[in-house]
């Protein structure tokens, strides 16, 4: 089992989860984070830390469609190991639905 980052992270990119991750399995895109499922140890400490509630266990039915996206971008984006400021308009985007069209494929 692993955890995945979902659509709620797009255009928010809070990094509270990064700060608590014991194995540094988060990767940073321009406007989203992802988890490398091959590196995640399923400890679950990241999930409650996310202000956008964007992290789900892959056993959640909603998480399955995000597993491929997390795997793909973890291979392309750089690892992030320290907390940084969220995106400037994160509060405005937190909780907004339909954000997948806003996902930037660019690395941070």
Automatic annotation (TrEMBL):
Its required cofactor(s), as named, are: [4Fe-4S] cluster; [3Fe-4S] cluster
InterPro entries referenced in this protein's UniProt entry, alphabetically: 4Fe4S_Fe-S-bd (IPR017896), 4Fe4S_Fe_S_CS (IPR017900), 7Fe_ferredoxin (IPR000813), Fd_C (IPR022569), FdxA (IPR054829), RnfB_subfamily (IPR050294)
Q: Where is the 4Fe-4S ferredoxin-type domain?
A: 1-30, 31-60
Query: What does the function comment of this entry state?
Result: Ferredoxins are iron-sulfur proteins that transfer electrons in a wide variety of metabolic reactions.
PANTHER family linked:
FERREDOXIN (PTHR42859:SF2), OXIDOREDUCTASE (PTHR42859)
Database matches in PROSITE patterns: 4FE4S_FER_1, 4FE4S_FER_2
Write the record's keywords in alphabetical order, separated by commas: 3Fe-4S, 4Fe-4S, Electron transport, Iron, Iron-sulfur, Metal-binding, Repeat, Transport
The yes or no answer to whether the keyword rRNA processing is present is no
Query: What name does the UniProt record give this protein?
Result: Ferredoxin
Alphabetized SUPFAM superfamilies for the sequence? 4Fe-4S ferredoxins
Which positions, given as ranges, span the membrane? Answer: none
Q: Which Pfam families match?
A: DUF3470 (PF11953), Fer4 (PF00037), Fer4_4 (PF12800)
Q: Give the superkingdom in one word.
A: Bacteria
Protein species of origin:
Roseibium salinum
């Amino acid at each position: 089992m692993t955890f995945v980052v979902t659509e709620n992270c797009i255009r928010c990119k809070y990094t509270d989860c990064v700060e608590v991750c014991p194995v540094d399995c988060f990767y940073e895109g321009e406007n989203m984070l992802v988890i490398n499922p091959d590196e995640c140890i399923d400890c679950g400490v990241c999930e409650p830390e996310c202000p956008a509630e964007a992290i789900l266990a892959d056993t959640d039915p909603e998480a399955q469609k995000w597993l491929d996206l997390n795997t793909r971008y973890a291979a392309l984006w750089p690892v992030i190991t320290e907390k940084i400021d969220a995106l400037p308009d994160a509060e405005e985007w937190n909780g907004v639905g339909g954000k997948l069209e806003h996902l930037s494929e660019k690395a941070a």
